[in-house]
């Protein structure tokens, strides 16, 4: 009766949690793949980048970076700032990922917004190994993104349609993520910090130079206010 391996039990427990992510990642991944292909890149660019980078917003930005003049320092800073939120995800997952053995490096690497949401809040059923559950949620989510990006890259070379405005999907994605987080949170400290920093840096530095200063301001503010924000979050959970 109990001969089923912990890994198999964890996979069966993890998969239902990732079904909504599959729907979103497949669509967004295909959009990204088509965007890359129509920007002049071969299908294997989004295919490889979906595995190596595995950061949706960063991958969209990376498309314009690859088309822009060579500026490694700016690219590095932009990438760090865009993914800086993962620092806070990582801090929140320190206890949950403790004791996961060889899986831990991959769990750290494969962290994304959606994977964090599932692994942080999911109630792992009895009989499913905790480490394997986290592992399969992370692996399935990355596979969904890889599948979407690869299909989009292939189909983008076969389809012929007007792609004007396709790059707006990145803006739409950020808006949807912001709205989703706003609805989920009972307090909106991080959202207000992001809004105020974005508007202030836009007015001070202009549209072309505001991204990095904005991310720096957000990172500094969230770091300084980390304890009160975490305290409010714990109160909301209780």
Explain this structure.
This protein has 238 residues and is mainly alpha-helical. It is 74% helix and 0% strand. The protein contains 12 helices and no strands. Helix 4 (72-82) packs across helix 11, helix 7 runs antiparallel to helix 8 (130-156) and helix 10 runs antiparallel to helix 11 (211-224).
Total strands: the figure is 0
Distance between the termini: 37 Å
Mean of the pLDDT scores? 82
The sequence of SSEs as H and E is HHHHHHHHHHHH
Task: Give a nutshell description of this structure.
The chain is 74% helix and 0% strand. With 238 residues, it is an all-alpha fold.
Features:
about 75% helix, about 240 residues, mainly alpha, 12 helices, single chain, globular
């Amino acid at each position: 009766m109990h001969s089923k391996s912990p890994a198999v039990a964890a996979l069966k427990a993890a998969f239902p949690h990732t079904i909504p992510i599959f729907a979103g990642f497949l669509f967004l991944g295909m959009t990204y793949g088509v965007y890359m292909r129509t920007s002049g890149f071969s299908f294997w660019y989004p295919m490889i980048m979906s595995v190596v980078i595995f950061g949706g917003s960063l991958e969209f930005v990376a498309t314009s970076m690859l088309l822009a003049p060579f500026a490694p320092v700016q690219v590095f800073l932009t990438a760090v700032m865009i993914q800086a939120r993962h620092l806070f995800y990582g801090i929140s997952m320190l206890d949950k990922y403790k004791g996961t053995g060889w899986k831990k490096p991959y769990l750290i690497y494969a962290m994304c917004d959606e994977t964090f949401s599932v692994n942080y809040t999911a109630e792992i059923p009895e009989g499913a190994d905790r480490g394997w559950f986290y592992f399969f949620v992370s692996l399935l989510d990355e596979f969904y993104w890889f599948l979407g990006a690869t299909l989009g890259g292939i189909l983008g070379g076969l389809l012929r349609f007007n792609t004007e405005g396709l790059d707006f999907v990145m803006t739409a994605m950020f808006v949807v993520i912001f709205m989703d987080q706003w609805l989920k949170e009972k307090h909106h400290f991080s959202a207000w910090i992001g809004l105020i920093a974005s508007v202030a840096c836009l007015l001070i530095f202009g549209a072309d130079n505001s991204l990095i200063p904005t991310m720096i301001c957000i990172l500094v503010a969230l770091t300084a206010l980390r304890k009160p924000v975490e305290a409010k979050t714990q109160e909301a959970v209780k």
